[in-house]
Amino acid sequence: MSRSLQILSLLGVLLLAGCATSPANVAGAGTQLETRQIQTREYDTLDKPMTMRSVIATLQDLGFTIDQADADLGTVTATRLHEYTMRITVTVVERDNQRISVRANARINENSVTDAATYQDFFIVLDKAMFLTLHKVD
Amino acid sequence: MRRASSGRRSFSEGFSLLVVVTLGGCATTIPESALRLPESTLDLRSMQTRTLEAPSENDILAATIAVLQDMEFNIERIEKPLGVITASKVTDADSASEKTGLFFLDMLCALGGGGGCDAMSTAQDNQHITLTMVVLPSLSRSSEYKARITIQRVIYDKMDRIKVLERIDDAKTYQQIFDNLRKSLFIQVGEK
Description:
The complex is a heterodimer.
Chain A: H1 2-20, H2 32-39, E1 40-43, H3 48-61, E2 65-70, E3 75-82, E4 84-95, E5 99-108, E6 111-112, H4 116-134
Antiparallel strand pairs in A: 1-5, 2-3, 3-4, 4-5, 5-6
Helix pairs in contact in A: 3-4
Chain B: H1 2-26, H2 41-48, E1 49-53, H3 57-70, E2 74-79, E3 84-92, H4 96-111, E4 124-137, E5 144-157, E6 162-167, H5 171-190
Antiparallel strand pairs in B: 1-5, 2-3, 3-4, 4-5, 5-6
């Protein structure tokens, strides 16, 4: 019994220590390729400015306020303050002179968003905005 | 024999509980609908958007900057090729009625003999308001533009702790800004 308790206490200490340490975590978790795949979608267009405007409209629809946008570098950063703080950065890059690649990465409070479903939700909304833009519907 | 088996059972129960509690504490909770469109999207979009007529996008941007200055905002960033303006201001969020309520709460607490009566420190102190204005040229009609404004604020208490994080959803606020913007645009175009 006392041995069981000892093992339990040791396990408890080890597990809690796992939670308590706060490494700098600069490089982030997850493999680079996997993360990129989850966060990226490609579109058959070469209109970078219109893609960026669609991204901005999508972010506004999702309740974000745009902190910063750069047309040359194709970057938009936005924040949403609603129950929690969510920050998202979206980059728009031309690929092989054929298509446009859009990548989003988001954080909620101090955690990074790593689940594929959340990014899929974002791209569902962006897909609609891109479709309307490409077909020139306001 | 029975003692040994009950010991094993309490060990396995304790172990399972520990694992569940610890994993629960470590797990990052991402809200499921974080990037899904809420049902109120259309209402919110129409509240925050107006269609404006102007000779150019630049006229709308210049008129917006003038309105933001009228409203005592500081311009943080402008990205002209994308029609984005971000502005912010810090204002007083001090409320006399809130402070009176908290004062009485502290008084009651002190009369009750309790220590650490510091409800007053949770009173609102100031608020940081951030506003984004995005101008989008109409895809079907030239000289027509869609302007959309989004506003958020963070309210801090007397100890500089965040008290409220929220998006401004008040239709009157947006209406007032767009009314001012139309006037400013009229002046802007007339001056040319």
